[in-house]
Amino acid sequence: MPYSEIDQLAINTIRTLSIDTTSNAKSGHPGAPMGLAPASHVLFSRIMKFNPKSPKWLNRDRFILSNGHACALQYVMCHLLGYQMSIDDLKKFRQVGSKTPGHPETHDPTLNIETGAGPLGQGIAAAVGLAIGKAHSAAVYNKPGFDIFDNNTFCFLGDGCLQEGISSEACSLAGHLKLGNLIAIWDNNKITIDGSTDLSFDEDVEKRYEAYGWQILRVENGDSDLEAIEKAYREAIACTDKPTLINLKTTIGFGSQQQGTHSVHGSPLKPDDAVHVKKLFGFNPEQSFHVPAEVYQFYQKRVEENQAVQKEYDAMYAKYAQTHADLYNQLERILNRHLPDGWEKHLPTYKPGDAAVATRKLSEIVLDALCPVVPELVGGSADLTPSNLTRWQGAADFQHPSTNIGSYAGRYIRYGIREHGMAGIMNGLAVYGPIIPYGGTFLNFVSYGAGAVRMAALNNSRVIYVATHDSIGLGEDGPTHQPIETFSHFRAMPNIYCWRPADGNETSAAYLGALTHCDSPSILALTRQNLPQLENSTIENASKGGYVLYENKNAKVTLVGTGSEVSLCLDALKTLKSEYNLEARVVSLPCWEVFEEQDESYRLSVIPDGIPAMSVEVYSTLGWTRYVHEAFGMTSFGESGTAKQLYEKYEFTPEGVAKRAHKTYEAYKDTPFIRSPVRRAF
Amino acid sequence: MPYSEIDQLAINTIRTLSIDTTSNAKSGHPGAPMGLAPASHVLFSRIMKFNPKSPKWLNRDRFILSNGHACALQYVMCHLLGYQMSIDDLKKFRQVGSKTPGHPETHDPTLNIETGAGPLGQGIAAAVGLAIGKAHSAAVYNKPGFDIFDNNTFCFLGDGCLQEGISSEACSLAGHLKLGNLIAIWDNNKITIDGSTDLSFDEDVEKRYEAYGWQILRVENGDSDLEAIEKAYREAIACTDKPTLINLKTTIGFGSQQQGTHSVHGSPLKPDDAVHVKKLFGFNPEQSFHVPAEVYQFYQKRVEENQAVQKEYDAMYAKYAQTHADLYNQLERILNRHLPDGWEKHLPTYKPGDAAVATRKLSEIVLDALCPVVPELVGGSADLTPSNLTRWQGAADFQHPSTNIGSYAGRYIRYGIREHGMAGIMNGLAVYGPIIPYGGTFLNFVSYGAGAVRMAALNNSRVIYVATHDSIGLGEDGPTHQPIETFSHFRAMPNIYCWRPADGNETSAAYLGALTHCDSPSILALTRQNLPQLENSTIENASKGGYVLYENKNAKVTLVGTGSEVSLCLDALKTLKSEYNLEARVVSLPCWEVFEEQDESYRLSVIPDGIPAMSVEVYSTLGWTRYVHEAFGMTSFGESGTAKQLYEKYEFTPEGVAKRAHKTYEAYKDTPFIRSPVRRAF
């Protein structure tokens, strides 16, 4: 179908609305929306499957705006397409409480925002995750005549996304995995905040993506050659065994007097320039937020066509429910975020007499037990499988079938040595639908992926990081691999659960917590070294985040530990008695965030008034005084050596603990009232 | 010169010593050292300029082992070449207190370890920094007849380094900058911990690096074709306008019965396999750590040749001291880590009446003042120059001269949108010699570079991160850009100074601290929004890390703030008095780490016993109870809106502060003794 005046009018409406949205807010990025208006128009009017009245339709095409600063474009499109986005919402752009924040957020389910974006590179990594999600879901659920999952994933991205390492990681893996349904549209406008890309970015992007195994298409004139844009989209969709990068050459701020320069990138157009653009496009410069009626009608028609497509899909899906009831029921269960009935009975439990085992190994035992009964678990590791122990018995790899080393139905992803990419991809997997992703690396290298971990927390995504080798206890690899500060970082991050289990039951509790907190990511910090199974540790106790492991009415001090230091605290009791004639009680605090959710009276029963509390954890002590009066931890980086040598060097021994517990007692013994730190004034 | 039996004997000695080193430690990675032995032998015996007796010789060729887990190789080479590395040191591999930790560390100046490595990708990024350092230093200090700086930078790296995003970022920039003296040798052994690289990494690496603008060379047989290896090195050196990637095909664990598999990657060889290798290479399998005398002699001869080269250089340098005394004196001053006499007098100071200014702008004023008088400052930004305000007046860009937008003498680096790459490159710049690097990004995106920031702290490198847009105060960009948890992360990291200045004088103090702490990196968190100039804020006061800004004998509570919340605390005094009839004192705590260095009596004078203290900071409160009894901070991510709206929403207003200060007072008023949190039991 040829393009006509209505298409150009719609495109110019996108442009002027983007100008008005940013000008009215006195803040925001008009340039990229103006440049991407044609590509966006063609995409939404001729290519994408979606339904604004059913924004979470299972088989919708996914759209990600990786250059999230251009979000005025997405909001404007939402308005024009009939999502719940009014002109008033556009007028509240970047204001508190609006539907139109400064970068795309996921909190409004009525919009087409699949995952948050803005930190550059995150969107394209999530798009890779969405594409994996589709490939996997199709392999599992599609049956002859039932293409339950056959959507495409479209991602706009800018030069910034292409420069970020996370995109290199994710896109290299996307090429390896031959993700045919992934279509990335590079807004090649040659401008960044500093100015021309010539300042720092003159690599041959097309060639790089070819090297990754992508199909490359180019649109020489993305400003007005709508046929070429459509042709590129269609060629991209037709290519089923490679992701596609469309090199879309555009002019940033198209129509502005400053077009093609960085002055239209990050600030609203000057008033006279806005007038200039409107005149140029035949709009009344006196009017703001004007949408010609025929533009609304045009998009409405397109939406109706789409709704007809969904109607057909719904009929097919209803039939699927009958002919493939098991798969249908499983899918619906997962989409409703219910775990399989009785799944938690598969969580392993341990008795005090049981053998000492490393919590990374205990994690493997959990995965061996759960993965066969929780089919939505899709695991992986950033290359450290034999160390992270993240691959359950009988797992099959997620690989393109042509490789003969797996298939798209496989549930174990070989992420390669790409921690940030893995975390970003998991953000896409988590929101695709029928998948709960987990991924392994060393705890220290979760920090490599911190930018994406943050997005999971911000997006309310259930992503599980299996973070082994969790302290100096990893030993000989030395300080480059021994986390000291990592947990302080994530304990300070909102909406993420940081677990550091002390034994088998606590490890099971950590998985219970991670899987049942549907709106939050979780990090599981796990040891390389063996830990004993503790008395009074139970899944139920640990699920409160903190509990009394060893009670003692004569205690003069409370010792509070996590993970590998809980058994150390227990070991120190004898020394404390024999050397200092002091008795103590011991608390295990595997998850601060869950402990915070308990009421004050429970928290006070764990860490009471009247005696001082001291923490023992081989990390930075930062934050511990939220729970204790004195904190024993690491004040430097670690060193290479055996775990035993290192624990001795830094005095994480019964003697070292007892000595400090005694000092804590001495420091507070004359204090008339010792207030528990869990009491808060506000 | 043809290769002969002695070369093969030396190579096999490297291999068997690597086996013995890891076997004796019962830990470590023998495979890569065995595979890289030929490339290493050729490099050190025929190519590199170095002097084991003068390991920090200014013009030495730099060698970086980016695949740092292969460090047995570097230690073995150090031994054979006559660095201060004995067989006993090799026998202490990976033990506490040894010279031979599990990954290369920089703490021993007698070795050839330029910068720490191990976290994959860090070494190659640092190598890019070293190469920039050389190009810049040569442009500044070389004169006709005086090639003070003409070294090359060699970097071994593995598949893991190539997969990490940081290497993509750094290598793309290296191509843009046409760093001819950078030579990266890819140990292409097709093996990672998970197994074959076919599992996750089948991109065309050569093509990708061509896309970056690198020269590509290939050695088909890196196991034994010494001529080809040497030829590649020489071609790489000859190419002066592009970095070079040598695709060196090797067999991991060459000689082992398990060669070419991942079982030789991360664990010592089995005893019978070690015997097998020794027999294969004609070594006595009963002997360990055996070095044939002729191998020692061979390397000794090579070292002597090198020493002769250094002798010539020294003579030239002595002449340079006379003919170019100014440059010589500047260079020596910098190498001795002295700042220019009186430099600190250029730090701007402010009076209470002066205008309110954003600390990012105050930082720019500092840079405008300092950069002209401190020529070792080499700045830059990850694309956000107009936002970070990191480019001083009159700065010239560091660019290849052919670009006509700068020269190698320029001191402002356009890092592009590559935060991790920037941080990793700065680690190389910091150790090259005559450079103090600083780089700008938003505080939130320092987390993208956290892996490299950690290496700076671990390496004792003076690197300065200019981190603007430091809180919800950045406003409309929203929660994807507003740091909440970032400072908790870095406050928990050993050996890094985290500054959050409240005004102009404190901003000057932050730079004073960052520049004078020669063995530590510093982060400067700076506001987007304007802040008033405070009474009693002085450079001297702020240089103690914390001080009493407003004293009051009648105070019933101490308010402790940082950055933008210090003036808020002052503003709250009036409300506290009028609404609650309470008086307070106000403390500014711009740098916790410096405050920790003060003695207890000073710290108690700032945060005394007897009255409760409450912190006010728009970050996670994690860690604050180290200094205060109650902490007011952010308990969620922020939102899009103006700074004013957001401060009101989260109650960072005089009323919000006063309300909580009153609650703090109420909670503690009946406590018989209020202990200052700065008192520690141990």
Automatic annotation (TrEMBL), chains A, B:
<feature type="binding site">
    <location>
        <position position="189"/>
    </location>
    <ligand>
        <name>thiamine diphosphate</name>
    </ligand>
</feature>
<dbReference type="GO" id="GO:0046872">
    <property type="term" value="F:metal ion binding"/>
</dbReference>
<keyword id="KW-0808">Transferase</keyword>
<dbReference type="InterPro" id="IPR033247">
    <property type="entry name" value="Transketolase_fam"/>
</dbReference>
<dbReference type="GO" id="GO:0005634">
    <property type="term" value="C:nucleus"/>
</dbReference>
<dbReference type="InterPro" id="IPR005478">
    <property type="entry name" value="Transketolase_bac-like"/>
</dbReference>
<feature type="binding site">
    <location>
        <position position="387"/>
    </location>
    <ligand>
        <name>substrate</name>
    </ligand>
</feature>
<comment type="similarity">
    <text>Belongs to the transketolase family.</text>
</comment>
<dbReference type="GO" id="GO:0006098">
    <property type="term" value="P:pentose-phosphate shunt"/>
</dbReference>
<feature type="binding site">
    <location>
        <position position="189"/>
    </location>
    <ligand>
        <name>Mg(2+)</name>
    </ligand>
</feature>
<feature type="binding site">
    <location>
        <position position="445"/>
    </location>
    <ligand>
        <name>thiamine diphosphate</name>
    </ligand>
</feature>
<feature type="binding site">
    <location>
        <position position="360"/>
    </location>
    <ligand>
        <name>substrate</name>
    </ligand>
</feature>
<keyword id="KW-0106">Calcium</keyword>
<dbReference type="Pfam" id="PF02779">
    <property type="entry name" value="Transket_pyr"/>
</dbReference>
<keyword id="KW-0479">Metal-binding</keyword>
<keyword id="KW-0786">Thiamine pyrophosphate</keyword>
<dbReference type="InterPro" id="IPR009014">
    <property type="entry name" value="Transketo_C/PFOR_II"/>
</dbReference>
<dbReference type="InterPro" id="IPR049557">
    <property type="entry name" value="Transketolase_CS"/>
</dbReference>
<dbReference type="InterPro" id="IPR020826">
    <property type="entry name" value="Transketolase_BS"/>
</dbReference>
<feature type="binding site">
    <location>
        <position position="69"/>
    </location>
    <ligand>
        <name>thiamine diphosphate</name>
    </ligand>
</feature>
<comment type="function">
    <text>Catalyzes the transfer of a two-carbon ketol group from a ketose donor to an aldose acceptor, via a covalent intermediate with the cofactor thiamine pyrophosphate.</text>
</comment>
<feature type="domain" description="Transketolase-like pyrimidine-binding">
    <location>
        <begin position="357"/>
        <end position="533"/>
    </location>
</feature>
<keyword id="KW-0460">Magnesium</keyword>
<dbReference type="Pfam" id="PF22613">
    <property type="entry name" value="Transketolase_C_1"/>
</dbReference>
<feature type="site" description="Important for catalytic activity">
    <location>
        <position position="29"/>
    </location>
</feature>
<feature type="binding site">
    <location>
        <position position="159"/>
    </location>
    <ligand>
        <name>Mg(2+)</name>
    </ligand>
</feature>
<dbReference type="InterPro" id="IPR055152">
    <property type="entry name" value="Transketolase-like_C_2"/>
</dbReference>
<dbReference type="Pfam" id="PF00456">
    <property type="entry name" value="Transketolase_N"/>
</dbReference>
<protein>
    <recommendedName>
        <fullName>Transketolase</fullName>
        <ecNumber>2.2.1.1</ecNumber>
    </recommendedName>
</protein>
<feature type="binding site">
    <location>
        <position position="191"/>
    </location>
    <ligand>
        <name>Mg(2+)</name>
    </ligand>
</feature>
<feature type="binding site">
    <location>
        <position position="160"/>
    </location>
    <ligand>
        <name>thiamine diphosphate</name>
    </ligand>
</feature>
<feature type="binding site">
    <location>
        <position position="265"/>
    </location>
    <ligand>
        <name>substrate</name>
    </ligand>
</feature>
<dbReference type="InterPro" id="IPR005474">
    <property type="entry name" value="Transketolase_N"/>
</dbReference>
<feature type="binding site">
    <location>
        <position position="469"/>
    </location>
    <ligand>
        <name>substrate</name>
    </ligand>
</feature>
<feature type="binding site">
    <location>
        <position position="528"/>
    </location>
    <ligand>
        <name>substrate</name>
    </ligand>
</feature>
<dbReference type="GO" id="GO:0004802">
    <property type="term" value="F:transketolase activity"/>
</dbReference>
<feature type="active site" description="Proton donor">
    <location>
        <position position="419"/>
    </location>
</feature>
<feature type="binding site">
    <location>
        <position position="265"/>
    </location>
    <ligand>
        <name>thiamine diphosphate</name>
    </ligand>
</feature>
<feature type="binding site">
    <location>
        <position position="481"/>
    </location>
    <ligand>
        <name>substrate</name>
    </ligand>
</feature>
<feature type="binding site">
    <location>
        <begin position="118"/>
        <end position="120"/>
    </location>
    <ligand>
        <name>thiamine diphosphate</name>
    </ligand>
</feature>
<comment type="subunit">
    <text>Homodimer.</text>
</comment>
<dbReference type="InterPro" id="IPR005475">
    <property type="entry name" value="Transketolase-like_Pyr-bd"/>
</dbReference>
